[in-house]
Amino acid sequence: MLYVVATPIGNLGDITLRAIEVLKSADAVAAEDTRYSGVLLKHFGIKKPLVSFHEHNEAMRTAQLIERLAAGENIALVTDAGMPGLSDPGGRLIRECIRRDLPFTIVPGPSSILTAIVGSGFLPVKSGGRERELRGAASRDETTVFFESPYRLMKTLSAAIEILQDRQLCVARELTKKFEEFRHGSAAELLAHYQAHPPKGEIVLVIQGAAAS
Predict the structure, then answer these.
(1) In a designed cystine with 5, which of 72, 107, 121, 165 is the match (CB 3.0 to 4.6 A)?
(2) How distant, in Å, are the alpha carbons of 4, 79, 115, 159 from that of 107?
(3) What global pTM score does this model have?
């Protein structure tokens, strides 16, 4: 299993109990800066082999870590601060796990993005119009994220078939819970799946940006 672990963005007291448990149980910790992460592990009394994983060796290390994961090892991936893959190394390794159908999970925690958004007071109010929002997502180069309900997901995916066509989507469901799921595909593929397997639980719908499609 690959564990993508969020680490404190400044105050070490912000680390989660689950993050500490994962770091203690992992076979190795892949870190953006082994010196920085070494200080973090030492602070919490954790002794684990550290593997450098930064922007200059990400391709090589991804290939190596994928083989270790395929062999059954548990690898924890951390960055200097916050969540790996957000402006820090990690995205390539996660995408390769998806391609190889290797298990991974996200261990949430401190986030500079969410902390700043909430602190800004700029949180948007709810807005209606499913088709309008989907057409907006279709025109953006950036990734778009929606909170969705299992009762609305089918209607949203149905509308997305025409608007988004073959654009890649991800239904992230029951995050951090027993039945956590990251399911990827086009709107048509996802709709077919959830027609056969009615969705349950909390859902986040992620829509690939136009620039990446």
Answers:
(1) 107
(2) 6, 13, 17, 32
(3) 0.88
**Helical spans, DSSP H, in the chain:** 17-25, 34-43, 58-70, 91-100, 112-120, 130-139, 153-164, 187-196
What confidence score (pLDDT) does residue 205 get? Answer: 96
- HEC profile for 112-134? HHHHHHHHHCCCCCCCCCHHHHH
Please state the rounded mean pLDDT for residues 189-197.
97
How many whole angstroms separate alpha carbon 143 and alpha carbon 208?
A: 5
What tokens were used for 100?
A: 């190889």
Which pLDDT band, with edges at 50, 70 and 90, does 43 fall under? very high
Burial of 42 from C-beta contacts in 10 A (0-12 / 13-18 / 19+): exposed
